[in-house]
Amino acid sequence: MTTAILEIRNLHARIEDREILKGVNLIIPPGQVHAVMGRNGSGKSTLSYVLAGKEDYEITEGEVLLDGQDLLAMEPDERAAAGLFLAFQYPIEIPGVATMTFLKAAMNAQRKKRGEPEMLTPDFMRAVKQAGVALNIDNDMLKRPLNVGFSGGEKKRAEVLQMALLQPKMCILDETDSGLDIDALQVVAKGVNGLRAANRSMLVITHYQRLLNHIVPDVVHVFSDGKIVESGDKDLALQLEAKGYAEFDDAAA
Ligand SMILES: Nc1ncnc2c1ncn2[C@@H]1O[C@H](COP(=O)(O)OP(=O)(O)OP(=O)(O)O)[C@@H](O)[C@H]1O
Ligand SMILES: [Mg+2]
User: Fold this and answer.
1) What radius of gyration do the chain's Cα atoms show?
2) pLDDT digits over 125-165, tens only?
3) CA separation (Å) from 157 to 104, 123, 131, 162?
4) pLDDT digits over 212-236, tens only?
5) CB-based contacts of 19: which residues, under 8 Å, 6+ apart?
6) Contact at 8 Å (CB) between 210 and 235?
7) DSSP per residue, 15-30
8) What is the CB < 6 Å shell around ligand 1?
9) How many domains does the chain have?
10) How far apart are CA 103 and CA 63, in angstroms?
11) pTM exceeding the 0.85 threshold for the entire prediction
12) What are the φ and ψ backbone dihedral angles of 91, each rounded to 5 degrees?
């Protein structure tokens, strides 16, 4: 049996005495793309934050394995070095640090943590430019401070650029499609599809079935009140679009 890239068992998490995750179970085998859809406030971003290791959350039960390793025992930077990547719903602005500089620092920090040598600047520049072309990210944008004054769509494209450079084994995309115009959606989807690989898995959180026409998922999950209540193939997303979440609320109760 091959090891799942991500295995979440009965995960419970709370913030300020309020339980948000109420028993999440999810297994993502290598190479698969899973989509998560669910109402506002159901806990989707919380799940991604807990996986990335954001503080503030108290894990009260459950376990998470990343490629067989105990993810919850790792610090956030160790998780990233181990191959976990989260593209934020609201990307963070980093004033004063050029996007290019940030990307290089992020990449070399991970390499260092893994005991790998730093990437040489010319090699890095080449890799960024190459990845940037596919995402319509030009030199001017790379010189600007990360995300500062970027439009919504530019921020999302910058997230996918980071992902393309870091080559994570588990990518979590939290509403990377929201706020994108039709062309940008295709650019982002192409970028994400280009990263699909046999040894890489993805978890795509979205509100829009439309995205799943571009990034076709292997499995679609419905998230409701802190857990996954239904899983199916891509037709489940169409069903949701047609009927809404009401019928799945009962399943959660
Ligand atoms: N610091 C906090 N204190 C109290 N409640 C919080 C805190 N952070 C998040 N929550 C609550 O946790 C719940 C889940 O939020 P989360 O952001 O995970 O939802 P979501 O499924 O990502 O929603 P959306 O689709 O709108 O992005 C919400 O009710 C939110 O108000
Ligand atoms: Mg969210």
Assistant:
1) 18
2) 999 999 999 899 999 999 999 999 999 889 999 999 999 99
3) 17, 21, 11, 9
4) 999 999 999 999 999 999 999 999 9
5) 12, 13, 60, 226
6) no
7) ETTEEEEEEEEEEE-T
8) 15-16, 18, 20, 38, 40-46, 89
9) 1
10) 31
11) yes
12) -55, 140
The token pair that represents 105 in the structure block: 């620092």
- State mean pLDDT over 2-12: 95
- Nearest bound ligand to the CA of residue 174: 2
Please report whether residue 108 resides in a domain: yes
What is the CA(89)–ligand 1 centre distance, in A? Answer: 12
- Please report whether residue 16 resides in a domain: yes
User: What are the beta bridge partners of residue 98?
Assistant: 145
Q: At what angle do helices 182-194 and 152-166 cross, to 10 degrees?
A: 10
For strand 219-224 and strand 33-38, is the pairing parallel, antiparallel, or unpaired? parallel
Task: Establish if 111 belongs to a structural domain.
Answer: yes
Structure tokens that stand for 56 in this block? 């503030």
Q: By the 8 A CB rule, do 103 and 161 touch?
A: yes
Tell me how far apart the alpha carbons of residues 217 and 115 are, in angstroms, rounded to a whole number.
34
For ligand 1, atom 30: residue with the closest CA? 41
| Residue 149 burial (C-beta neighbours within 10 Å; 0-12, 13-18, 19+) | exposed
Q: Which domain holds residue 29?
A: 6-252
Neighbours of ion ligand 2 (CB under 5 A): 44-45, 89
User: CATH number, domain at 10?
Assistant: 3.40.50.300
pLDDT at position 251 over 70: no
The verdict on residue 33 lying in a domain is: yes
